[in-house]
Design goal:
Helices cover about 65% and strands about 0% of the residues. The protein has about 260 residues and is mainly α. The longest helix has about 30 residues.
Length: about 260
């Protein structure tokens, strides 16, 4: 009875006794936050490009800076695959994948080297925006995203693990909150279905964070605990099983 009451509390009664959704109320609510989302997208994209171009450093010469860029060029056929070397730098395949896509779209000229970092910074800022909007208000999320972008350490430009790991971890957390119904303050009246698809999405994004930097695995107990408390042990087992399966697959590929 309570679920039915919650699920239909935004419905109006028509003159013939039937209940119909209040389209005007729903439209105003959706329209109001869509305007926030579009505005935030434009502002964050513009501010990301501005701050990154204002403080462009020299291209790094360390392993993290060069290995993934050169190995992505191998995947694009610019360098023979016979020169491929497996080490802890090239094992960060999520970063290499983003770099490979960027090279395929923009080429591999020197300035293109900074594009993957820009993508990661924009991904972090947008993820923070949607987290803030979901938990509090879109303005909170926008301020958080802008505050992040004012920080311009060298690692946010080079192909370093931290920005990519943070980006994918924040995305995983955002999907986790959606799957668990956390922060549904703006009109979500039920948890998404099918739940298993959202749990798998959490695991996939978290694994991409791990493929950026192994330190992302420290979030796994927290994510698992939240899934268990909100959705039960089956969601926890599915999440852990997908993560374990992906890890075993990665290990077999290396072998």
């Amino acid at each position: 009875h309570r679920a039915g009451h919650i699920g239909f509390e935004s419905m109006d009664s028509s003159s013939n006794g039937n209940t119909l959704p209040s389209c005007r109320a729903v439209g105003c609510k959706v329209g109001r936050f869509w305007k926030w989302h579009v505005t935030a997208l434009v502002v964050l994209v513009g501010f990301t490009v501005l701050t990154r171009l204002l403080f462009v450093p020299e291209i790094g010469t360390y392993g993290d800076d060069t290995h993934k860029w050169l190995h992505a060029k191998m995947l694009n056929g610019e360098i023979p695959l016979s020169e491929w070397i497996w080490d802890h730098h090239t094992a960060r395949t999520a970063i290499m994948g983003v770099t490979w896509i960027v090279q395929a779209l923009t080429g591999s000229e020197p300035m293109a080297y900074f594009v993957p970092g820009i993508v990661a910074c924009l991904g972090m800022a947008l993820s923070l925006y949607f987290l803030g909007a979901r938990l509090f208000h879109p303005l909170v999320g926008l301020v958080a995203g802008l505050a992040l972008l004012t920080w311009t350490p060298d690692m946010f430009y080079q192909l370093m693990p931290s920005p990519f790991m943070i980006w994918f971890s924040l995305m995983s957390l955002l999907v986790l909150m959606h799957a668990c119904g956390i922060g549904d303050g703006h009109g979500d009246l039920r948890r998404p279905q099918p739940l298993w698809a959202w749990v798998i999405a959490v695991a996939l994004l978290h694994f991409l964070a791990y493929l950026s930097w192994i330190g992302a695995l420290f979030f796994m107990p927290v994510f698992g605990w939240i899934l268990w408390r909100k959705n039960g042990w089956k969601a926890l087992v599915l999440y852990a099983g997908v993560m374990a399966g992906l890890y075993l697959t990665e290990t077999l590929i290396y072998a």
